[in-house]
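User: Here's a chain of 167 residues. Predict its fold as tokens.
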Amino acid sequence: GGSGGYAEKTFAVTPSTAYTYAIGAAGAAGASGGGAGGNGGATTFAVGATTVTANGGVGGGFIATTAAADFATASGGAAISTNGDVNGSGMPGLPAILQAAGAAGIGGGGGSAPGFGSGGPGRKVSAAGLSGNGFGGGGGGSLSLSGAGANAGGAGLAGVIVVDEYT
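Assistant: Prediction complete.
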């Protein structure tokens, strides 16, 4: 899966004022037996009428072991942020490759979040995917080879908000 986005914004604030924020939840891992992973939730921070949004990461794809020929899947795309002075995207996940109708392959690695977390590595043995590391890292792809059972992809991780105060 792809990692979450990055946003940075400078606000003039009023002391002792409460501000609204939400940390995006981690995306759900793919179902054991097949299925794409879920997208992560958006992380938001609001001051007045402006809400800065760092969108959650994109869930990783799935390749069935019944694919008739060599097959590569597109990676989990990157999330883009909005309303920041700086709006960045996360890194996309790496593609997965399945060869010889499920006899060999590699699971795609998860995307790394800018400055906060790394994606879970892709699997090269038939096993469940590994979770991302740090804040916003994308889950790593599992590998399910023919005859070895189906495995779920790794979970992406929740986002983070960092507030710097200047006086």
